[in-house]
Amino acid sequence: MLKYVSLIVCLLAVCSSGALAGVNVSSPANGATVSNPVHYVATAATSSCSKGVASMGIYTAPGVLAYVVNGASLNTDLKLSPGSYSTVVEEWDYCGGASTTARTIKVAQGSGVYVSSPQNNSTISGPVKFVATASTTCSKGVASMGIYPSPYNLAYVVNGASLNTSLSLSPGKYNAVVQEWDHCGGSTATPVTITVGSGHTFWNLQHSGGWSGFGQGPPDFVDCSSCGGKVTWSMIQGVSSPSMTGVATRFNIGGNMPFWDALFNNHLIGDFSSQGLPDTSKTLVPKLHTFTYDVYFYGGNLGLAQALEFDVNQFFDGMGFIWGTECRVAGGHEWDIWDNVNAHWVPTGIACNPGSNTWNHLTLQVQRTSDNHLLYQSITLNGVTHTLNKYYSPGSAPGWYGVTVNYQMDGNSKQTPYSVFLDKLAFTYE
Fold first, then answer.
1. Which is deepest, 360, 372, 403, 416, by most CB within 10 Å?
2. Is the pLDDT of residue 345 over 80?
């Protein structure tokens, strides 16, 4: 489980797979030619899983999960570039079952703005990267594009049907708009809501030095260095494919005993700092209260993972603040958070269905309150944000000092080997 704390945990029981009758898609019609935005309406058929349907999602291409919502129904609009699509609407139940219905559609040429960066409802530190393209029904084409960080504040304009620029924005929340103007006097726009943080950020930590690895397994999940072959692990940095930056890192797990884990840890601030911030005067770490863990992850078959875990840790004055967040995949497709005092996972009721063979974007926001409690603020996966606002007391960690991050891979019931790639791992503190 989590480094620095000796844990005794129970293995989570996995529900038997539920048989699903299917997904009923009432819009769009199969084979239809549609205009933007594409309207999707679907419901999940009754599941034999006693816990019911966890969530539904839309794949616009194999491995490209464009939309996810909790519950047994969805009703949303998706902006898609003109062209043909073999889309799939899928549902997942709490017993590990799933069912799909395919919809082949053609999106007609029309007017629209397609924003690939920043992601809607994301939190960003530093300059904000805007990347967008536009299309129009005007025969003369798109004349120009621009960015409004706030109403009536046109901060950037460029000629043509695409833009790629960075804007320096003060900390705060922005209801930005990316707009296009065509040569026929027409215009369309796409809104994007972002929060700009005031903290400091470590970028591309997956490519940084300072990583160490450990094995952990039942019943007590205490760190081991060799583990007698019960679990094996490794990491390879500087991977160019699959990669978003050209310097992704591949993390691997294997072994011969079920439900063993591989923990990867990096000391960022304080003792053993890999970032040049040892804080020998012990004045920085106690002042830090707000943390953001932002990462992209990719797996060829994420269904082999019992769980994937992403942690933020802060230690000082004998206190241990461990914001543990894990996505149970084979373990039940649900997000859990860590209770420091009682040393166990707490289900959140939020479905977790990362896509295989595609990059998944995860952002975790947590805080240490002024009275030294842990606050889990939000989880954002692939653009869908769930607000938690859950408070817990810290544990005890005498002798430990600093701020660290963890990434962990949990083995399944057969300890089937699998790999996950991390890229653009950023950590913001303030």
1. 403
2. yes
Average pLDDT, the chain: 89
Q: Which domains does the chain possess?
A: 23-107 (2.60.40.10), 112-197 (2.60.40.10), 200-429 (2.60.120.200)
Residue 2 has pLDDT above 60, yes or no: no
User: Which of 343, 337, 344 minimizes the C-alpha distance to 396?
Assistant: 343
- Over residues 386-413, the pLDDT tens digits come to 999 999 999 999 999 999 999 999 999 9
Tell me which amino acid residue 6 is: S
| Higher local confidence (pLDDT), 53 or 155 | 155
Region of residue 152 (left: phi > 0; alpha: psi -120 to 50; beta: else): left
Contact 210, 267 (CB under 8 A): yes
Sequence length of the chain is 430
pTM: 0.67
Structure tokens at 296: 């992209």
* 3-class secondary structure, 303: helix
β-bridge mates for residue 389, sequence order: none
Alpha carbon distance 37, 40 (integer Å): 9
pLDDT at 46: 60
How many Å apart are CA 230 and CA 219, to the nearest integer? 13
HSE-CB at 70 with a 13 A cutoff on CA atoms is: 14
pLDDT tier at 35, thresholds 50, 70, 90: confident
Rounded distance, CA 74 to CA 47, Å? 16
> And the tokens for 71?
């519950």
- Kindly list the distances between the CA atom of residue 9 and the CA atoms of 241, 300, 331, in Å, as whole numbers in the listed order: 36, 29, 14
Q: Calculate the CA dihedral of residues 201, 203, 205, 208 and round it to 10 degrees.
A: -110
Tell me which residue of 304, 294, 264, 283 sits closest to 419, measured CA to CA. Answer: 304
What six digits make up the tokens of 256?
């011969």
Q: How far is CA 314 from CA 75, 199, 227, 264, 429, in A?
A: 41, 16, 27, 16, 11
Tens digit of each residue's pLDDT (9 = 90 or more) over 116-166: 788 788 778 767 889 888 888 898 999 999 999 999 999 999 999 999 888
What residue type is assigned to position 99 of the chain? S
- Rounded to an integer, what distance in angstroms lies between the CA atom of residue 89 and that of residue 56? 7
